[in-house]
Design goal:
Blueprint lengths: L11 H11 L3 E3 L6 E3 L1 H20 L3 E2 L5 E3 H5 L2 H7 L4 E6 L2 E9 L4 H11 L8 E10 L13 E11 L2 H22 L5 E4 L11 E8 L5 E11 L1 H5 L3 E3 L5 E3 L1 E8 L1 H10 L16 E5 L4 H19 L7 E3 L7 H10 L4 E5 L1 H6 L1 E6 L5 E5 H29 L1 E3 L3 H10 L3 E5 L4 H11 L2 E6 L7 E2 L6 E2 L2 E5 L3
Parallel strand pairs: 3-7, 15-16, 15-17, 20-21
Antiparallel strand pairs: 1-2, 4-6, 5-6, 7-8, 8-14, 9-10, 9-22, 10-11, 11-14, 12-13, 17-18, 18-19, 21-25, 22-25, 23-24
Length: 479
């Protein structure tokens, strides 16, 4: 059906780019590695923002904004931080026609400038906790880029909090991780594993990093969101101190957490098919596209009047801004239908003269192509039910796919064979050694995605060395 989209089985990478192009989500920008997010792609991001922003505010967080340019000296204050980000930094050396006294870094993340300001804002335990989020862009000079998944500039939100104790900060870190998990599963219909990162995979400067890991249709992992317990590392680097309840001056404990426009790529690769984009109803900017069909002016008047009634009935239960009436007359019906298919709109309502005579509209599901005729009387109740069922079934399908491609392996030869032949998430015992982790990455390109949260650890033997292991960790080749 989709002549302009390469089948997934033929070339998955090209399929991904074709779906983005056909869905009019983004284009490459004139600057290498950057992207222009088109209205459809940005509308998806706006939906994500709206849901996440509400969840953040419900847990007491407030929004602020910090500058895009950061003094280079700030980046050097936290040793692990500069070591981790140095290769990716974009640096401004000239401005106003002359060389700057100190170079400025285009923010790769904002822990440093936030720490500088928190040191001024926090004086007493009464000022804590400090719970701030910002929506912004960041710049990381990537060598290999792919639209949404890894670009030099991208949009995201980054939360930064400061607390009296390590226990409170760790609790906050895990709370935000769970907010991401719930959002990804309930809104994006994308099942994720949550857990702690290994030492080599954690955020530069963090004590612990936790992540949400999703499995894409090509059986590669994608890190969908992260939450970091920073301990007192940045607090000491930027001298963020306060008078505690015993009137002693001590350093705060901080966290940071973020999710980005990478989620649009994750959404695409979780649900879309060879005809284009498939969007879960809760995140779709347009939930229902109404397509009136007629050949004469007499039919037009009749069909448009009925289509207007359908739109009004839908508006009783749905957001009117997420209902679109397709009034284009310069395209064939098949082309109009396929436009909404490639835009990933969950439901399409087709209304022709015969439908008007029967007093119904023909609703077509984007994911299954199931057709359901609904009368005006049925629409207000049946359409929300259809959207809910579609949301639930997309999640169930994605979860079944993940479970079908999750494997328990006990030896390194078995690990390499399963990874090469089947891919997916591989649960294996590991002795905790960075050397073993690095060797596996070098030989197979698989990394430890997370040390899974929840459940009782089941001791075993490291698949490589045979040494004791407390529990299985999750390996996968990742984006």
């Amino acid at each position: 059906m989709a002549k302009n989209i390469t089948p997934r089985a033929e070339n998955y990478s090209q399929w991904y780019l074709d779906v983005i192009a056909a869905g009019q989500l983004a284009d490459h920008a004139p600057v290498k590695g950057c992207m222009v997010i088109r209205p459809t792609g940005y509308a998806i991001w706006e939906q994500m923002q709206a849901v996440l922003d509400r969840k953040f505010k419900e847990t007491g967080h407030v929004n602020a904004y910090f500058p895009v340019l950061i003094p280079e000296s700030f980046i050097h204050k936290e040793a692990q931080h500069i070591e981790g980000f140095s290769p990716e930094l974009a640096v401004v050396t000239h401005a106003g026609g002359k060389m700057l006294e100190e170079p400025l870094v285009v923010r790769p993340t904002s822990e440093t400038v936030v720490g500088h300001m928190y040191a001024q804002w926090v004086q007493s335990y009464r000022d804590l906790p400090l719970l701030i989020n910002q929506w912004c862009n960041v710049m990381r000079w990537e060598l290999r880029t792919r639209l949404f998944l890894r670009t030099s500039e991208f949009l995201w939100q980054e939360g930064h909090t400061a607390h009296e104790t390590g226990a409170e900060a760790e609790e906050e870190t895990l709370r935000m991780l769970d907010i991401y998990r719930v959002f990804m599963e309930d809104t994006l219909a994308m099942p994720v594993l949550t857990g702690r990162k290994s030492e080599s995979e954690k955020f530069p400067g963090a004590v612990h990093t936790y992540s949400c890991e999703a499995l894409m249709q090509d059986k590669k992992a994608l890190q969908a969101g992260t939450s970091h317990y920073l301990g007192q590392n940045f607090a000491k680097a930027f001298n963020i101190t306060f008078l505690d309840r015993q009137n002693n001056r001590t350093h705060v404990h901080t966290t940071s957490w973020g999710a980005s426009t990478r989620l649009i790529g994750a959404l695409l690769m979780t649900h879309s098919d060879d005809d284009g984009l498939v969007l879960p109803p809760r995140i779709a900017p347009v939930q229902v596209a109404i397509v009136p069909l007629y050949k004469s002016e007499a039919e037009k008047a009749e069909v448009m009047a009925f289509a207007g009634q359908v739109s009004r009935r839908l508006s009783e239960k749905l957001d009117p801004l997420r209902i679109r009436m397709d009034t284009r007359e310069d395209q064939r019906p098949a082309d109009r239908f396929f436009h909404w298919v490639q835009q990933g709109v969950p439901l399409r309502a087709e209304i022709g003269p015969k439908d008007v005579q029967k007093g119904h509209a023909m609703f077509v599901r984007r994911d299954t192509r199931e057709k359901v005729p609904l009368s005006l009387e049925q629409i207000a109740v049946a359409v929300p039910e259809l959207l809910t069922r579609m949301q639930d079934e997309l999640f169930a399908k994605a979860k079944a796919f993940r479970e079908a491609h999750s494997h328990r392996v006990d030896s390194y030869p078995e690990f390499k064979r399963v990874l090469e032949e089947q891919g997916g998430f591989l649960y294996a015992h590991w002795n905790g050694s960075a050397e073993v982790e690095a060797m596996v990455k070098e030989e197979t390109k698989a990394t430890i995605r997370c040390i899974p949260a929840g459940g009782e650890p089941a001791p075993g033997k490291c698949m490589v060395t045979g040494e004791p292991s407390l529990q299985r960790v999750v390996f996968s080749v990742a984006y």
